[in-house]
Amino acid sequence: MNSWRTDGGGRIDRTRALSFSFDGRRFTGFEGDTLASALLANGVHLLGRSFKYHRPRGILGAGSEEPNALVRVVRDHSRATPNLRATQVELYDGLVAESQNRWPSLGFDLSAVNDILSPLFPAGFYYKTFMWPRRAWHAFYEPRIRAAAGLGRAPEGPDPDRYAQRFAHCDVLIVGAGAAGLAAALAAAASGARVILCDEQPEFGGSLLAEPSARIEGMPAADWVAAQRSALAARPNVTLLARTTAFGYFPHNLIGLSERLTDHAAAPSAGSLRERLWQVRAREVVLATGAIERPLVFPGNDRPGVMLASAGRTYLNRYGVRVGSRIVVVAGSDAAYAAALDLKAAGAEIVALADVRSAAGEAATAAAREASLPVSLRATVLGTSGRLRVSSVRLGTVTSGGAVEESSSVACDAVLMSGGYTPTVHLFSQSRGTLSWNAERNVFVPGKPAERTHAAGACRGIDALAAALADGAAVGSVAAAAAGFQGSTPAFEASAVEFGSAGAPGALAQPGPTPPAKAFVDFQNDVTTKDLALAAREGFRSIEHIKRYTTTGMATDQGKTSGMNALGVVADGFERSIPEVGLTTFRMPFTPVTFGVFAGYARCDLFDPVRTTPTHDWARGHGAVFEDVGLWKRARYFPKTGEDMHAAVARECRAVRTGCGLFDASTLGKIEVVGPDAVTFMNRLYVNNWSTLAVGKSRYGILLRDDGFVYDDGVVARLAEDRFHVTTTTGGAARVLGMMEDYLQTEWPDLKVWLTSTTEQWAVIAVQGPRAREVISPLVSDIDLSPGAMPHMSVGWGKICGAPLLLFRVSFTGELGFELNVPADYGRAVWEAVYSAGRSRDITPYGTEAMHVLRAEKGYIIVGQETDGTATPDDVGLSWAIGKAKPDFVGKRSLERPAMKAPGRKQLVGLLTEDPTVVLDEGAQLVESARQKVPMRMIGHVTSSYASAALGRSIALAMLAGGRARIGETLYVPMPGGDIAVKVTAPVFYDPEGVRLNG
Amino acid sequence: MLVIDCPYCGPRPELEFSYGGQAHIARPANPATVETSDWAAFLYLRSNTRGLHAERWRHVRGCARFFNALRDTTTDKFIATYRTGEPAPAIDSRGDR
Ligand SMILES: [Zn+2]
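# zinc ion complex -> structure
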């Protein structure tokens, strides 16, 4: 077997062998390898199957640009990361990797039949093929397409790893630690600016790590990099982040960084962080993101063994791996010559150097002649063969007349290609900076920045080593100065053997007018020149439309290797220039980011804050079942042994109607409205007339928005002439305070009113039922509880068990009721005191479910349940609450609009099913007759529906068009199980005269 | 995430703020006398500006105050922030007064 590994050289440690497996086969690599370099060193080129056609695919690149070699790295059943680029996976001992997108095996994939059937999968095939029959989409097409296509599989178990998130500020953030980025960091750091330098690779140095000829300041470039890295690390004003991808550029110079901390380790220590999300707010950003080589576009350019020339060089110079022994080099750029020379010097045979241009650069030509490379000019590639790895290339010649003639077929085991370099402008484009066209090099480079952004080095087309270092240093100084730090610009002496990197995007010349089927432009999404031509033929002109129709550039690789070639092909087809065709916008993320790092700490118990009431632990101890109401945990019901929810709620309701119930209402929003203008403020805001509310009394208040629709409700007490205690719904507390502040600050800033949220300052204990007074009176002092002294809706200050007490006589159940407001710290003690005092009277704690049933029996609405943001007070039967004489209040003018008084508005009614055991579904629709064609005319909907213990049957509330005039009618609720007949009633089912709450 | 310069507290990250819609839409002093169509316009009609937009923000997780801002909707650049009740500064989108 051929040894693909060189005898020496590279940045791997040959003394540290690492064992790993790929698709179950065991291999050995070295410390410093990537999974890709280790596989290539073992002669493995076949790494995956393509997205659409399931074609065999290998390794195209050597870094984050890789579109093909996506693998799944498995540690255990919950630690399995799909879609990792093998070119970025650092090898560790025991690494287990799997190929993706193949069945049953990588070498024999049944779905590869898609490749033979490819004429059936043209551009836009999703839109065309699966339009009919419509219902087959969900049932048939989509599940099959999803199973056959798509990328890797997610892990099965929950993610056990830890992820951190942090914010950071700096003066200069530098993205990319290649030659330009390091020079920029050295310049900015010397000025005293706070610098963050990040790079996606484990080592700093970028392309210098694969440039053995490069020397800086008299030493090999890699040594210089290591020395500068140490110097920077020693500075207190510098933060260095390796293995850190700048994945997104957000407004106002916020950059998202994803730092990978343990994925490279064979055995991460337990509890260690896997990744950290950095949100860096930088005064100035320097992008030194380098450039990415373009593939050439020719038939069969996706076959395993066909690679970028830069990748071939990187595997040789950095990892000590020859990617082939008989190599065809296809040059669309002088950069290919460097790869040919290096590989030849390392012992590989260059069987052809096919230059697609009419001439190469002088330096490249001279070097090729000296090394006796078999160069042919005006060449093209007509095809490749080899089932799972390239075995030969058919070359052609373009005549001076432009005709293409086949010239030879060359046997080989690798093809290296270079179409020239594309500056990596993803982040600059994300920041909405405009790109400008460099016609000399046929590339887009950063133009006018939208943020405080500077570009340096190869990402703006400056890629000769000495020039890139000088540019980086100058830009680093400029950025530091812009952030307020002056320093001198360092100069670096450097040399390297370099050829040009310019090329021309587009496809290679082919015979005949029809574009070949398998010349791939976008490898990851399987988009060919034929697809792009089809999109143009079908009338697409905008590059944004062509992108979406063909999906080119829309894969996870964000078009790194495909974007410019697609533009070149489209521009050629339209006979327009590339800048005329224009460029699509790059989106974040630059490379995929884990969900874990975005979720960070916000998982499980820390997903959301939890709000609990003072009696929470007591309720838990008494078996309460809780429900989430916003962030609150509220006791829903208190089941006794053997009870289901239905039985528990029925028992709790009976207790309130016949004896005494105990309910925690602490979650109600509470706002104190205080000041000499408090009553004016309340009059302007709420519909009610507050001037007539005496101190020591309370009233049911309704708050509208200015559009006239009910926004919130709650009992409002007047504690003093200038002090109101306003309660809101549990969910509405924050937004009601926000609305109050809005009007106070922006419409009526002249009013002397102060607003304070007191929601969490008070525990609210509701004692409800005919025996409520008996239960609490032994505990309460300083308040006369007799009906004459403390009638319904009165409020008083006193003491309970020695604690301060603000007592409301109010009822949300229709029974005699009190709400004990005590400072929250006393809540649990008072609750327990009331509970023990009531034991002899069978006091029963009840939850939100019983509360809902009890209020529905009385026809009391819940804002957000009966109302939906389009209900007026009159719609829900509350126009009695409006202070009619007031000249204005928020929403009053809107209530005069014709539509708000139009007949046929939905109104609150009750519903009784013909069969009293049937409980309607909330949200069910009401129709006049069940004998209608679908879609039926819907005239209302059920808003609340319960089994009522007090009435011994089901009850429901509904919003019904013209509802109050339809009381007595029979309507229907059509349901999948049949039509349910209901009788329309008034919305108050229990004690309609309201005598009980005056007990 | 934007950086917003609260006129009371200084520059703070966007997550401390809530958006409050278009600025300088005063509630009519005497709504009862306002024509229905004008009232509907007050309630519902807002400009959809491409470029400089005067809008309300509230530093809700800070000083809790409302204030106004001029923001370029095409770039998300804040050209100015100013207190409620003050007129919008006469500024063009380049930030020149
Ligand atoms: Zn503030």
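# post-check
The beta strands of chain B are 3-6, 10-13, 18-22, 52-58, 66-72, 77-83.
Chain B touches chain A at residues 1-3, 13, 18, 20, 26-28, 30-32, 34, 36, 39-40, 43-44, 56, 58, 60, 64-66, 75-76, 84-85 (CB under 8 Å).
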